[in-house]
Amino acid sequence: LEGPGLKSVTVRLERRFLRGLNMQDVVDVLSRLSHLNLGNNMIGAEGVNALTAALEKNNSLTSLDLTENHIGAENAKTFAAALAKNKTLTSLDLDRNQIGNEGAQALAAALE
Q1: Backbone phi and psi for residue 64, each to the nearest 5 degrees, phi listed first
Q2: Distance (Å, rounded) from C-alpha 80 to C-alpha 85?
Q3: pLDDT classification of 3: cutoffs 50, 70, 90
Q4: What residue ranges in 9-70 does DSSP mark as E strands?
Q5: What is the pLDDT of residues 30-79, one digit of tens each?
Q6: What band does 24 get if pLDDT is binned at 50, 70 and 90?
Q7: How many CB atoms lie within 10 A of CB 50?
Q8: How many CB atoms lie within 10 A of CB 75?
Q9: Closest to 33 (Cα-Cα) out of 1, 57, 55
Q10: Distances (CA, A) of 94 to 14, 47, 57, 72
């Protein structure tokens, strides 16, 4: 994932059912990615917690797809706190999650 001409790295891991150690492997390489698709992995609270810690420090990821990952309102609030600190993410897809009004409000506030 390194090279003098390498500007952007896209990784598509949708429908891999990443959890636990598998999710930690993704987080470990997050600093070298610009686009990450984790759609339909059911990462839930455990996955959100792992991503949150990484996103707070990340300065390369510009696009993150978390479609259909069983992310609820509380998970969205946790994620919002990381987004407030992250300055590089420009695209976030949370389609087909259960973030509700509270989660959406927390995310909107973090992006202001």
Answers
A1: -135, 125
A2: 9
A3: very low
A4: 10-12, 35-37, 63-65
A5: 777 888 888 888 888 888 888 888 888 888 889 999 999 889 999 999 98
A6: low
A7: 21
A8: 26
A9: 1
A10: 13, 14, 21, 10
